[in-house]
Amino acid sequence: MADYGNELRRLLSKDGYIKLNKRGKGSHSVWYNNDKNITVTVKDKVKSRHSANEVLKDAKIDYKF
After folding, report:
1. I want to staple 28 with a disulfide (CB 3.0 to 4.6 A). Which of 22, 24, 37, 64 is the partner?
2. Which domains does the chain have, with CATH numbers?
3. pLDDT in tens, the chain (65 residues)
4. pTM
């Protein structure tokens, strides 16, 4: 099964999101975009493309896996 986490974090970073120092629950990291005023939570290992696409949708990034 593929891990979409690295590519997802790269897309977030490219769109201006920064990883905050605080951690979410369990193995989640919190990302924030100051321009859009949007916060998203990303699992360390994203195994499902559907989950990765949901994060991108929440982050308002027009990209599909």
Report:
1. 24
2. 5-58 (3.30.920.30)
3. 689 999 999 999 999 999 999 777 788 999 999 999 999 999 999 999 999 999 999 999 999 99
4. 0.90
